[in-house]
Amino acid sequence: MEIKVFNVALTQMLPIFKIVSIVLLCISTTLLISACEPSNDLSKPMADTEKEHSQSNQKTSLSTLEIPASEKDKIEAIYGWLDSNTILYAEKKDGTDSRQLMEWNLETNASTIFYQPASDFTEVSISPSGKHVMISSFTSSGKASITILDRTGNPQYSLVIPAYELAFDWNAYQEGMLFVTSFYEDWTYSSYVINAEEQTVQSLDFPQPFAQWDSENGLMFLDWNRNEPALTAPLERKALNDKAEENLMLDVIHFKKVKTTLMTIQVETEKHDRGTYAFYDDTNKSIQSFSVPLLKSFSDWVIPAYDLLEKDKELVTFVPVESKDADQYENKFTLTKMNWETGAQEELMKDMENEPLSCSLDGSLCLYGNQFEKIIDMKTHQIKKIF
After folding, report:
1. Tens-place pLDDT, residues 333-380
2. Taking a C-beta distance cutoff of 8 angstroms, is the pair 357, 366 a contact?
3. How far is CA 174 from CA 131, 161, 215, in A?
4. Cα distance from N-terminal residue to C-terminal residue, the chain
């Protein structure tokens, strides 16, 4: 729920560039082409626009949605959803430059203090279930302070590790567990597993700095070659306490693992300007795939912002109207919903900017924008600005 540029040797650090840029653009994960199943084409344009939707006169759940006036001017950042009705954000304390975390309940329209840190913070991340929140900050001496809070905002576990930057992934199979990578000033790194419930931290010798949990004790990762820059990488799996790695598939450009589903993105074999979003169940059996136009940058593929609604088995993402080099692409994007169980697809809104998305746990509302400053009603497609 976030991009940083690292000044390093190209042949050694390009894989990190790839994954960081992918994660930030969406937030994050790779899809296999299956020749035995139909591929759905989602490149057709629509008639309605973001402006038309935002000016809709239809009465919606957003019509009465308004953050308290006393809070609006103090908002510094919005981080995402604690549950389907509650948003976590930061605001300045009255009369100071320090910040505190707030929760805004959309049903009651009440805004209350979630956590008041002793010092300022840099990053905030909410676990997939919304039951834990991680905050972090960095010191001038090259250390990172990490605190994990429970759902009520009470500190559960705190630690300090050497780091100039952090990457992390929540374990959806075990509450309060994180895979964390700390980057040093020269962009070498160390990896850790933090368990807030048991209040432990374990140092790992892990083959890649970016990984995602695929079980309580296992992780998936793209095994980028650090010496030879490439546009694709094999998807691998490794258990925490096992030296062996298992190859899952080749030539992946992005992947995302949620609790019961794996999504991968691959370039199509016969049409190199198109990509296949493929979905697999927890036994790695192919479920569904969708074909979309791809945008290519100088050294990577552009993965538009998306979110996975696991409860409804839906991918919500932005789709370009044509395949092109990213620096020559002048069109906007179509907000599209794809159901990876039924294969159904729905074009929701046209002429949208490719900006980050974060949807509520029930999928009814989505935060939208570079600062999550807007909200989309997914039923009426109305957009409302929060701040």
Report:
1. 999 999 999 999 999 999 999 999 999 999 999 999 999 999 999 999
2. yes
3. 11, 22, 9
4. 18
Please give the backbone phi and psi of residue 12, each rounded to the nearest 5 degrees, phi first: -95, -30
> Which amino acid, 302?
V
* Angle ∠(87,91,93) on CA atoms, nearest 5: 140
User: Long-range contacts of range 258-262, CB-CB < 8 Å, 24 or more positions apart?
Assistant: 258/128, 258/172, 258/308, 258/310, 259/128, 259/172, 259/173, 259/310, 260/310, 261/287, 261/308, 261/310, 261/313, 261/340, 262/214, 262/220
Q: How far apart are CA 364 and CA 327, in angstroms?
A: 33
Residues 6+ apart with CB under 8 A from 328: none
Query: Which pTM was predicted?
Result: 0.82
112-135: burial string, b at 16+ Cβ within 10 Å, e else:
eebbebeeebebbbbbbebbbbbb
3-state secondary structure of 54: helix
- Residue 202, SS3 per DSSP: strand
Matching residue, tokens 């605001």 = 91
Beta-carbon contacts of 68 under 8 Å, excluding residues fewer than 6 positions away, are 109, 110, 111
Do 353 and 371 contact (CB within 8 A), yes or no?
Answer: no
Q: Among 174, 252, 173, which residue's Cα sits nearest to residue 210?
A: 252
